[in-house]
Structure formats: structure tokens, C-alpha cells
Amino acid sequence: MTELSAAATSPLVARAKAIILKPKEEWPVIAAEPDDTSGLFTRYAVPLAAIGPVANFLHGQLFGYGMMGITWRPSLLGGLASMVTTYAISLIGLFVLALIVENLAPRFDGEASRPRALKLAVYGATASFLAGIFNLLPGLGMLSLLGLYSFYLFYTGASPLMKVPEAKALSFTAVTVVCAIVLSLVVGAVAAPVMHLFGGAPGMSDSGEVSGKLTVPGVGAIDVDKMKAASAQMEADSKKPPIPAAQLQALLPTSIGAYQRTATESNGAGAIGSTAEGTYVAGDKSFTLRIVDMAALGGLAGMGAALGVEQNREDASGYEKTGTVDGHMQTEAWRPGEHSGKFGVVLGRFSVEAEGSAQSVDELKQAVSTVDQGRLAALGS
Prior knowledge:
Layout: H1 3-8, H2 11-21, H3 23-32, H4 37-49, H5 51-62, E1 65-67, E2 70-72, H6 76-104, H7 114-124, H8 126-131, H9 149-162, H10 166-197, E3 213-216, E4 220-223, H11 224-237, H12 245-249, E5 255-256, E6 259-268, E7 274-282, E8 285-293, H13 298-301, H14 303-307, E9 311-315, E10 318-325, E11 328-335, E12 340-347, E13 350-357, H15 361-369, H16 373-380
Antiparallel strand pairs: 1-2, 3-4, 5-6, 6-7, 7-8, 8-13, 9-10, 10-11, 11-12, 12-13
Helix pairs in contact: 2-3, 3-9, 4-7, 5-6, 6-7, 6-10, 7-9, 9-10
């Protein structure tokens, strides 16, 4: 067996794949396994929790961070400090979340068990861990919101592990999520000064009826039925091979209205996917049109529409919003005073985004629309 095939069949990979693709089948298997707190952390949480912090560190060092014309690249020391701090605090947060789960379960007619609560916290966070990889490449940051799929994983694991009645699983999950949000705010308050130093609940009814939706403060409603369908679709999507970068580059038009393409670049990253981008210039305005194939991660990206995620922010300088439009996740940002912004949309396993300066955000939307969705779909089929 080759090194690659051995890795693909490792217990960690097999468990992560199973809990993401078939959570309802995998949770009873997990519940029946012997309690091994030490092994659970060292063999599962420790390596997976590192994905997000490492991806953020590499992104900062390789690409820097940019938003509507402003670019910032953290120092090596600052980047390392941020990576180590967020990594350590995320692992500590799992322990704290397990304590919350253990104490809340009896309040919803479940059973208090620290080992099983730790299993639910760690394995339930799998989607959140994996979604951290989207922070590696430019243009995919919005997909980190897909870590919200962990809410669904947590919901499906509440009954098998904590013995919470299925009729109360949604309420139990909602209250736990609220506690987790408060925990994350506290964690953020603690982590911020450390990194700066280096520069770098829905109705809890006892009626026994389940609405089929989980409403999360600050997130919105998660449709459980759509989660089930999307989870099944992910298994098929995860088997599709990555698209060669050259084929993506061929989809970039030579001109978009008055803008002429002045440069192109493409890169492949094996199983992680590939990316192609072109630079378009018209007078003093220029933007980048980027196409990213997320390969096996495309299945996880498909969760965005099912989750119905939404995030909006507006101030005197402009606005930024992410949501689901016509079944596709899309992000839009614009600063009128600077004539700069971005517009992107997720089309199945592909992300198409235009970012830079233009006369209006409509020009960035036009740029994205020039990429032939039919040809993209054909490549991904």
C-alpha cells in the first residue's frame, strides 16, 4: 500500500469522512466505543484542530490579507503567535464545551457523562475543523461559515451520546449553541490581547414536537431536512477528481466590457483543488477575476445553501454581506468612497469571485457572470 493510500484509509480520515457524510449512522458506532479521552484528543482533535490555524498562518504569510484595496501582511512572529494562540484556545474550548454539554444534558432528560460529552464536543466539531481549510486560498474565506454544519452534527449526536430524547434534541442543541457562542466571545476577548501583543434559544417546549428547524442567534434557521439531503449529496461530490488549473484558466475571458485582461495565473494543489485568476484593467480601475475548484471540499461547500447562512455588516464606509441567493452562496462588499469591493458566488464545487476597484459593484457582478456556468458544470460532472 502506498503512503497516500494508507493515509486515505487512516482511522482519522475514515472517522472524519463518516461523521460528515453519514452522521446518523456513525454516532451510534461512536457511542458504543470504549471511552478514551486521551486518544480522542491526541489522535483526532489535535490534528484536525490545527487545520484552521495553520491555514490562516499560511494565507497570511503567502498572500497577506486584503479587503477592498487595503492589504496587510502579518509579521512571521505575529503570524506564529496568532496560530499557536488560537490553536491552544480551540482545544481548551473543547473541554469547556464538554463541561457545558455534561451539565445541560440532564436538564433535557438526558444523562450526564463527561466522556460521552467530550465525544460529542470533539466529533461534533469535525465540520468546523475541516472548514478551516477554506482560509488557505484567497476568495474562499466566506466558506469558513460552512463550519456551521457542526450544529447539525451536534444535533444528530445528542440522542445517541447524551441520551437526550429526540423530541428535545433541537432545544438541547440550541441552548448548547447559545452557550458556545458566549464561550467564543469570551475566548475572543482573551485571545485578542495575546495576539495583539505579538502584532499579530428557540422554544424549549416539552410538547415533544420537533419543528424541523434549528434557529441559531446570529446565524438564522438551519433546516434539518435539507441537511439530510445535502449530507447525502456530499458523499457523491467528494468522489470527484480536481480540475486541472489550465482548464479553469481557459474560462477567463480576454476582456470584460472596457476592461482588458493584462495577466493570468493558475495553480494546482492536488486533492485540495486548483485556482486560476486574471487581472483586468481599464484606466485607473483594475480587479482580479478568480475561479477556484474546491475538489473534494466542494461537497462541504454545498452545505452553504442548505444552511441558509447570512451575514451582513454596514457602516459609513460601505457594506459587506453574505447569503444564499437562488440556491447559491454569494458574497458582496462595496466601499463607494474608494470605488472598490468584491462579488463572489459558489457554484457547486466552484467559487467565482471578482475583487478590486471598479466604477460600481455591478461591474464586478458582470465580471463573475462572464464565466460560463455551463462549462463549469460540465467540468465538474
